[in-house]
Amino acid sequence: MKTLKHVLIALIVGLTPAGQVLSAQEKESSVWSLITQDRDDTKFYSGKKGSYELTSTKGGTPIAMILGQIEDKKAKKFSYGKWYVTAAECEVGIGKLVILKVNGDYDGEIDYVSKGNNIASVIGDLICGIYLDNKKAQEAKGV
């Protein structure tokens, strides 16, 4: 599995999963960045570049969210959704990765533990890494 650092770098500078820099033309057309894949190399989980947002649930809970894509090579199909972790759970590194349909309707949740060995933990670490980096940058701007 990729490390959080590799995924963040890929999201920022447009690296391929193998770590090679994309050409300028490929960077423009590549809107998805691979986050992780299953052990069988049949499902690939990607985040849409630029889709990260800090927002709130209908109940007012602050969340960090991205638009996600799952490519199922075995079934030859793609599925899309929104994936989020609450800001409070990012702070402590444990909670749930919540999966929403593209329209924002609840679709499920999976345990998230920072540095865990499941796919939800890798995705959650990416989301929370961006959240925590942004929070740190904002706090540094104060006097």
Question: Can you walk me through this structure?
Answer:
This protein is α+β, with helices and mostly antiparallel strands. It is built from 4 helices and 7 strands, in the order H-H-E-E-E-E-E-H-E-E-H. Strands 1, 2, 3, 4, 5, 6 and 7 form a 7-stranded antiparallel sheet that branches. Strand 6 and strand 7 form a beta hairpin.
For the sheet with most strands, the description reads:
7 strands, antiparallel
Number of DSSP-assigned strands: 7
How large a portion of the residues is in β-strands, by DSSP E? Answer: 35-45%
Structural class: alpha+beta
Q: Note the gap between the termini.
A: 40 Å
Number of helices: 4
Write down the Rg: 15 Å
Percentage of residues in helical conformation: 25-40%
The secondary-structure element order is: HHEEEEEHEEH
What is the 3D form? globular
Mean pLDDT: 85
What ranges have pLDDT less than 50 throughout 5 or more consecutive residues? 1-27
Considering the chains and any ligands shown, give keywords for the structure.
143 residues, 4 helices, globular, disordered N terminus
Strand and helix map with partners:
Layout: H1 4-13, H2 24-29, E1 32-37, E2 43-48, E3 53-56, E4 62-72, E5 77-86, H3 87-92, E6 94-100, E7 106-113, H4 119-140
Antiparallel strand pairs: 1-2, 2-4, 3-4, 4-5, 5-6, 6-7
Structure in a nutshell:
The protein is built from four helices and seven strands.
